Amino acid sequence: MLRRLLDRPCTLALLIGFQFAFMAYFSLGGFRNLTSIFGRETSPVFDYSRTHDIYTNLSRLLPREPPRSDPAQPLPYCPERSPYLIGPLTVSFSRVPTLEQIQAKNPAVSEGGRYQPSACEPRSRTAIIIPHRNRETHLGHLLYYLHPFLQRQQLQYGIYVVHQAGNSTFNRAKLLNVGVKEALKDEEWDCLFLHDVDLIPENDHNLYTCDPWNPKHVSVAMNKFGYSLPYPQYFGGVSALTPDQYMKINGFPNEYWGWGGEDDDIATRVRLAGMKIARPPISIGHYKMVKHKSDKGNEENPHRFDLLIRTQRMWTQDGMNSLTYTLLAKQLHPLYTNLTVDIGTDPRAGQGRKGLVPGHEGQRYQSSSSLFRQEMLRKLPRATMGWGAQGLYLPSALSQALAPRVSPGLTGVTHQPASRAAANGTQGDANGEKAGAPPALGASQRSPEAFGKSSSDPDPASAVAGVSASLAPAGEGAVSVRGENQSSLQGSH
């Protein structure tokens, strides 16, 4: 009987078609999907009781050969895995290095914090973007470890420190948007690393390159959380996106002033744009946090939950296409490029009050308590943003407190798998609206000058179209960088 089936032309055509589909699936990363379904990829094992000095044999990376006789002859590509990697690193904060000491240890780093291997053509060009204010000690520690860390990986890289001017409430996500916009003016970077200033990588096998398919959360094992992931949707600390991925999620939100919420908003944008979160193995993504007290001007954001509730309908209108700021100065320091920017002030300043917040099963927490943070960051983002296949769940007390702000149909929201959303080209919600992810952008569409004001149309599908439309060449209403030194700064690019 099997022989008869194989003799039929239609059966043979189906088998050939299945074979081609199978090959295409694997060529597009299907094996990675299979390993995530049927089992975990084999994770490398490292002994963190035996660590190495990050500067050990770093001199081997310095150019030793005389200049080439024919500069037009292309260099060979660097190996996919650098031979200079040493594994777990010794990270200590007992002494604060000066910038002069760091510069002396990194003679191959050029002005503006730039580096390029001299013996081979790098496989990735990575921009490191660090939001900063009043953290000079932390910045010194990070630069001391990060420069040799990146050189060992044989990357072409540049480090940008985005300094928020003034004393207004800190806005991490908006500073990262500014850094991305300014960095892309300098070069066509392949990868954007968004890096907190107080996190130091502890293993140089943690490659600072992007995942070609999905945004990557890199700081998966911090000592602050016992070297484990605090919750599945966590996207804080250090993350990496290609420019196309960054524009596809409309960048980071601009409305989160103060501590908390923006990383969960970003994780939601990734899902709404039809992508997933990629991560390195836990054994590689180790980070040590520089201890510090809470920052003045970076207090907990009392409005973060309200903002998270509206992410699903506002993500296409709040981000790179609504970014406004004033570039006050751009300075090329020996170890980094400093961007001093005025990003405005929190329009809600003075409206928030710390007090009792309704919690799960009728409990009431102080909004500044660790119990509230745990419920806020672990449970509520997962529920209110539709993570998982189950319907939306809100604790009863919290639902009552938020009733005026939550639409009646919101409790019926269910998550549509990304694969189905991609196949349909749309993503449904409880109100019958359709939301599609913005299309992937080519290099010609990435221009940072191409972002204008977003559409005010509340319909998600129209808003997505508005994001795509705003990526045309800048015209009326485009984001402008203001300041007396604008012309001189543009001339130096």
TrEMBL record:
EC number: 2.4.1.-
GO molecular function, one term: beta-N-acetylglucosaminylglycopeptide beta-1,4-galactosyltransferase activity
Catalytic EC class: transferase
Subcellular locations according to the entry: Golgi apparatus membrane; Golgi apparatus, Golgi stack membrane
Classification via InterPro entries: Galactosyl_T, Galactosyl_T_C, Galactosyl_T_N, Nucleotide-diphossugar_trans
Pathway of action: Protein modification; protein glycosylation
Presence of keyword NADP: no
Limits of the Galactosyltransferase N-terminal domain: 78-211
Cofactors required: Mn(2+)
Topology class, membrane: Single-pass type II membrane protein
Region (Disordered): 350-369, 408-493
Domain (Galactosyltransferase C-terminal) ranges: 216-293
Biased composition (Low complexity): 454-475
Keyword Nucleotide-binding among UniProt keywords: no
Entry keywords, A to Z: Disulfide bond, Glycoprotein, Glycosyltransferase, Golgi apparatus, Lipid metabolism, Manganese, Membrane, Metal-binding, Signal-anchor, Transferase, Transmembrane, Transmembrane helix
Annotated transmembrane regions: 12-31
Main location: Golgi
GO biological process, any: carbohydrate metabolic process
Functional description taken from the UniProt entry: Responsible for the synthesis of complex-type N-linked oligosaccharides in many glycoproteins as well as the carbohydrate moieties of glycolipids.
Similarity remark: Belongs to the glycosyltransferase 7 family.
Name of the protein in its database record: Beta-1,4-galactosyltransferase
Organism listed in the record: Dromaius novaehollandiae (Emu)
